[in-house]
Amino acid sequence: MEEKKRLSVVIEHWIEHNQSHMGEYKKWAERASILGLVPVKSEIDEAIKKLFLINHHLEKALGALSFPQ
Asked: 6, 14, 44, 58: which could join 29 in a potential S-S bond, CB 3.0 to 4.6 Å?
């Protein structure tokens, strides 16, 4: 497999992997909220936001692979 294609596959995997984690994080943030652990929920929510931003950049990187500069 050529390196560019391999990189594309790896980035796609990272995005999917991060999305899977985001689902788990959301579930645990809600559980923390139910337990009254507001600071814990807040920190998990921040982690979710950052992971969303990471995926945004990974998607941009994936798009850049399709459009050589």
From this structure: 44
Domain boundaries, the chain: 3-66
> How many CA atoms does the CB half-sphere of 26 hold within 13 Å?
9
Whole-angstrom distance, CA of residue 52 vs CA of residue 57: 9
pLDDT in tens, 34-49: 999 999 999 999 999 9
Which residues lie below 8 Å from residue 59, measured CB to CB, with a gap of 6+? 15
pTM for this predicted structure: 0.83
